[in-house]
Design a protein that fits this description.
This protein is an alpha/beta fold and 202 residues long. It folds into 2 domains: 100 residues, Formyl transferase, N-terminal domain (Rossmann fold), CATH 3.40.50; 95 residues, Rossmann fold, CATH 3.40.50.170. 35% of the residues lie in helices and 24% in strands. It contains 6 helices and 9 strands; from the N terminus they run E-H-E-H-E-H-E-H-E-H-E-E-H-E-E. The chain has a 7-stranded mixed sheet with strand order 3-2-1-4-5-6-7, sandwiched between helices. A two-stranded antiparallel ribbon has the order 8-9. Strand 1, helix 1 and strand 2 form a beta-alpha-beta unit. Helix 1 runs parallel beside helix 6. The longest helix has 24 residues. Bound molecules: 5-O-phosphono-beta-D-ribofuranosylamine. Pfam families: Formyl_trans_N. Pathway: Purine metabolism; IMP biosynthesis via de novo pathway; N(2)-formyl-N(1)-(5-phospho-D-ribosyl)glycinamide from N(1)-(5-phospho-D-ribosyl)glycinamide (10-formyl THF route): step 1/1. It catalyses: N(1)-(5-phospho-beta-D-ribosyl)glycinamide + (6R)-10-formyltetrahydrofolate = N(2)-formyl-N(1)-(5-phospho-beta-D-ribosyl)glycinamide + (6S)-5,6,7,8-tetrahydrofolate + H(+).
Length: 202
């Protein structure tokens, strides 16, 4: 199956997905990476792996709609079965989300539905959480909502700062995202009527 990854920055989750998909037994391959900014470091990482990496510079478009239409055009050319958001820092319109409904997934650095939005590590610490985590979910029209595919939790340690916590969580993200992608690609999890259904395995 064909997978396209959308990024905005460093692309470490994208890199984890690339690494996982290099295993011939993985049920999909990354056929392209798209960034909304030409300086996203992840673009070079993808190119080093001989993956088509395309910048659709948001600054070159008059408004959000025009930029998104251009992203949709590039995506259509890559013909993905699944689209993975990996640190893609732009809200997607209902048109986009519906076009790829059930085939569009995102990783978020919190145990959703706790802490949607930004600064999740700071907020988890401020709330006195003793665990923190990450979530891969199907993308629906509302930000950081949508049926949960898989989650991983880590312990909050004494003396943790947002930096130490996010560093440990990132390692968990890099394990979780390939796992969750595999579940979607092989049909173990699918979105039906706005819910993520887990297939029972014999
Ligand atoms: C990750 O923490 C991810 O959960 C969030 O944005 C960050 C992206 O990091 N959505 P990277 O670009 O994958 O390194």
């Amino acid at each position: 199956k064909r997978v396209v990854v959308l990024i905005s920055g460093r692309g470490s989750n994208m890199q984890a997905l690339i690494a996982a998909t290099m295993d011939p037994a993985f049920p999909g391959q990354i056929v392209g990476v798209i960034a909304n900014r030409p300086d996203a470091p992840g673009l070079d990482t993808a190119r080093r792996h001989d993956i088509t990496a395309i910048a659709v510079d948001q600054k070159a478009y008059e408004n959000r709609e025009a930029h998104e239409a251009a992203v949709l055009d590039v995506l259509a050319g890559l013909d993905p079965d699944i689209v993975c958001l990996a640190g893609y820092m732009r809200l997607l319109s209902a048109t986009f989300v519906l076009r790829y409904s059930g085939r569009l997934i995102n990783i978020h650095p919190s145990l959703l539905p706790l802490f949607p939005g930004l600064e999740t590590h700071e907020r988890a610490l401020a709330a006195g959480m003793r665990i923190h985590g990450c979530t891969v979910h199907f993308v629906t029209e509302r930000m950081d909502e949508g049926p949960i595919i898989a989650q991983a939790a880590i312990a909050v340690e004494a003396g943790d700062t947002a930096e130490t916590l996010s560093g440990r969580l990132l390692a968990a993200e890099h394990r979780l995202y390939p796992h969750a992608l595999r579940l979607v690609l092989d049909g173990t999890v699918r979105m039906t009527n706005g819910r993520a259904i887990l297939e029972r395995r014999a």
